[in-house]
Specification:
Blueprint (H helix, E strand, L loop, with lengths): L3 H14 L1 H11 L4 E8 L2 E8 L4 E5 L7 E4 L2 H8 L5 H6 L4 E4 L3 H13 L7
Parallel strand pairs: 1-4
Antiparallel strand pairs: 1-2, 2-3, 4-5
Length: 123
């Protein structure tokens, strides 16, 4: 089974190598200097920082005020990122809890689809 950290590390690595990904990241930030997407799976806390210049970082720990916070079992978050499960279905049955600006999920899943080569819908 893929780990959440492994999937996010792969996403960041590929984003840094892709002009199209950097454009998506910059567009996701729009007129903000950056966006923070936080993930909590059991005891693991990670967050992605997307910057308006198109760069991206993965950091460990808990950000005090993320734009969006995803809380679920590790396998659920991995399935969401790899397109194996729909966010709509996961939130409907409370398998996934999304706090904050849920619309940021669309940007995350577009990036995952582009870079990880999985087929899934953005919502």
């Amino acid at each position: 089974m893929a780990s959440l950290r492994g999937v996010l590390e792969e996403l960041v690595k590929k984003a840094r190598e892709s002009r199209e990904a950097r454009e998506l990241i910059a567009k996701a930030c729009s007129h903000y200097p950056g966006k923070v997407l936080q993930f909590k799976a059991g005891g693991e806390k990670l967050y992605l920082v997307l910057y308006a210049d198109g760069s991206i970082e993965l950091k460990e720990g808990e950000y005090p005020a993320p734009d969006v916070h995803y809380i679920a079992e590790e396998s659920t978050l991995v399935d969401m990122l790899l397109g194996r499960a729909s966010v709509k279905a996961l939130t409907r049955d409370w398998t996934l809890v999304v706090e904050g600006a849920m619309h940021e999920t669309e940007h995350l899943l577009k990036l995952a689809r582009l870079l990880l080569g999985r087929d899934h819908e953005p919502a």
